[in-house]
Amino acid sequence: MEILDLSNSRDDEFISQVEEESGQRVRLCYQCGNCTAGCPYTFAFDIPVSRMMRLLQAGQKDQILSSHSVWLCATCESCTTRCPNGIDVARIVDVLRHMARREGYATERGVKVFWDSFLESVAKHGRVYEMGLLTSYIAKTGKVWTDAELGPRILPKGKLHLTPSRIQGREAVARIFQRYKEASK
Amino acid sequence: MSPAYAYYPGCSGLGTSMEYEQSTRAICEALDVNLVDIPDWSCCGSTPAHTVDHTLSCALAARNLGLVEKMGLDTVITPCPSCLTNLKTAVHRMGDEEFMRRVNSLLDEPVGNTVRVKSVLQALIEDVGPEKLAERVVRPLSGLRVAPYYGCIMNRPPEVMEFDDHENPVAMDRLMEAIGAEVAPFPLKVECCGASFGVARKDVVARLSGKLLDLAEANQAMAMVTACPLCQMNLDLRQGQINAATKSQHEMPVFYYTQLIGLALGLDESSLGLNKLCVNPGLALREAERKTAEAAS
Amino acid sequence: MRIGVFVCHCGSNIAGNVDVGSVAEQALSLPDVAFASDTMYACAEQGQEGIIEAIRDHGLDGVVVASCTPRMHEPTFRRTVERAGLNRYMFEMANIREHVSWIGKDKEANTRKALDLVSMAVSKLRYDRPLTPKSFEVNKRVMVVGGGVAGIQAALDCANGGLEVVLVEKQSTIGGKMAKLDKTFPTVDCSSCILGPKMVDVSQHPNITLYASSEIDELSGYVGNYTATIRRKATYVDWEACTGCGLCMEKCPSKKSADYFNEGVGTTTAINIPFPQAIPKKASIDPDFCIRFTKGKCGVCAKVCPTEAIRYEQEDELVTEEVGAVIAATGFDLFDTSKYAQYGGGRYPDVITSLQYERLLSASGPTGGHVKRPSDGKEPETVVFVQCVGSRDKSVDRPYCSGFCCMYTAKQAILTKDHLPGSQSYVFYMDIRAPGKLYDEFTRRAMEEYDTRYIRGRVAMIYPKGDKYVVRGADTLAGTQVEIEADLVVLAAGAESAKGSPRMAEKLRISYDKYGFFMESHPKLRPVETNTAGVFLAGACQGPKDIPSSVSQGSAAASKVLEMFSKDMLESDPQVAAVDIKRCIGCGKCVQTCPFGAIEETDFRGQPKAGVIETVCQGCGLCTATCPQGAIQLQHFTDNQILAEVNALCRQPLVTSFE
Which terminus of chain C is more solvent-facing, meaning fewer CB atoms within 10 Å of its CB: N or C? Predict the structure, then answer.
């Protein structure tokens, strides 16, 4: 197991950045474990939520940002809702995910690609085009058989359209993304 | 007639949850809930947007709030919990002036934070209510035992969502009782189904949604009832995948609550999109009818 | 006037960042200051002797000590100057520790501020006049409010010390929470076996008058001379006649009445004696459930009562008692666990509170001491205890530790194994708090000898699955989520202030904290006194406490009362309001505004005037601020004195004094 050098490996700037971007105070956490206890995703996490909070208190940036957990949180809000100290834990995880993106981590590539494809679809059409989203995901991941078995179940229902619903305001939506990109440069 | 609500259907209503969209419109019309479409609405950003950036996420939602402002309406309602959460969170966080300024800097035209956001479910409870709904029922679903499943974000976090109990929501239970259905206990009402991980991490959805189907079956539900397109898709469309992954044999129909209300109101079945469900609900509905008849004789 | 100024070093507490020598030197140039010096510890014997010596040598007639907070040492120095022959009110204190050295690091600025404070004190002292306290007689009777173990101990100690005691209990029996417990930690001795005899002592003590089913309506008066109005609530039974035979309970047809004593585990009859060892052992009728009251019919109890004690027409009765002191021992209540919807919010029959579990364990409880699940009467095999339910949880506004739950949970786990040797207990805990004598050994025994499995982590949710309950928690030491299928779940409910405690505090004119617990006068040095003279605290009304602490406090409060009553006369504080008859126009505004009812309208040669009842006045000063004529002045804090202080401060250029 990795030994933490608490004198030298604590990244204080990381802690304050998380605090600023999330509006939460990480030192309020007293490690009761309620978030881990309630989190439906603990089974899939490599670092359970409460331990993520602990590592955050210890300023262990790399360990946190390179975890799978930050990508597998679904923001179901059970941690936030039940935290006895009123910490918006889900928001902290969201912020960690933002940072992981910025620092180039993507330990769950499929998840990231799916979300990216979703937003590309929104940027392009103004609304999500589900068929296009799936095609784009498959093209980027090369997982050609993704949900292929669902085809026969869903296609006859006429729910998946083969053309996107384009809105007039799609350029207005595209401009939102454009401005966001410029602002975050 | 209810006050006029701006209506935000959400993207999936045009595709994978079109039956939710159809049945929502049908019962709102039947129950005099006054929906006014938002012209040219755009995507709220859903989960992917807030995993990238909170300002971007709120800006995508806020564009729609701006459209509602222009309509001169004070409240927008949406059937989809994911849209609900994004719209509500945008209003909530724009309470902070600095944040609002940043959101507005991404938009063509600035918006405020005065629009109220509610779910269609909340509007039905507040404007119609179980008692009035019960009076309008022509075809009580008395033989149908259902497990109402609310999903994780319909009521959480409570400071933002401000509706129903966040651990034990009962709004759908009350409506199901009003249309005569029997409500099975379903203690995992607010447990997450696996959300949008279906495409990238099927295993996660199989485990979480599998647990929900197991519990519904263990509690002798004949069907599950949902209020969320994503929950419904995971439980219904992916039920085969779940069965394969968890070595189970569920044949559990998963309705939108609006479909069942529509049935009880005697609306034309074609307007409720029952044929769009993957797990055929026919068996359960016929069994319910048989039980009702049996009880009557 | 000749004033002496003494500037204290307080070791390095003050001298560390105030130039005390310079403050003393500069003080010499203040008006009327005839002597000034710095001293290492003014409060020490040597320091006090120095002050006395200076008073004699320099013929001083007023003293300023610049040191710490007056809360602690003002009485000390008043006695010092008195020993040197001065009136004790010819003394002022400047707080240059809490207000200067402890809060600022800049020595130069600190020194300037210290001098400002000294200069204010000197200016006030120049207007000080000798004041003399008045003495008044003490009524040596004491009222104890609350008959739990703390109140019982206080009442017995006072009564054994020769005082007449009035004990008021709102329930129909004394015994409080302790009477509901099965066993007590860390000795596992039977609660009723050790409490029972004390309860009997109360009932048989010639010095104790017990009012059960009674509450305090009003308390008026002042230390040594209080008048309490006690409401004896209607029990619909004549307790003079009732022999406690219990025949009425046997025959009462309303058997589904709420059983408060058993915490709602099971039901009782509408007419009932809460438990066999009740003191007084008298029946009372619960009108919410009595058929006679709800439907107008029945009357069985009246028919069967051999002493004809039933009185359906009985009404509340008010009695007054004159006492010289009051001990508040009103106890605590349990946190309402239904606020945790994630634990079922009271919807699951086999998720119960710790006090309900005590009743299941108790041989005199509704199951006769058999541990059975409320839902189906089955013996549980797996019992899960969840700690900190309503403790250390800001989200439910209970950030404090209730203190005793760790211990009673360990006890309940041990008892579970004793009752059901085949059972397995689990305890979810955050931290184990066991600092008392033999306490940690006790929790270790629960683990080592009784095989209780302790899991470090909170529980997120409990939900039914078949006829079991899934308890989903975290094991933070193992670093993951855990699930246990339990037959019975016991929630260790935290302690909170007794219902209605803020209203009780207002009646007793004492302060309470934001959670409703009564405030002691000093958290360390005056733990059983309040800021209202003659009102004392005992037990959990002051904050969560276990039995040994409650008993200790009961005895401590009793000894404080006995100390006070060891004198026949008490002195009143002369720092009270005084009316200048010539200026008073008799408008009555002060009478209306006084929160203590200490001002009355008097007649002075046919004209209405305000008159202060000096023993009742608490010296708050509200009247002086209200009086449109400036006719009412607080002794030792007159307008002139306060203005003198303000002038002392403002006379100097602001730039230098506030920099």
Answer: C
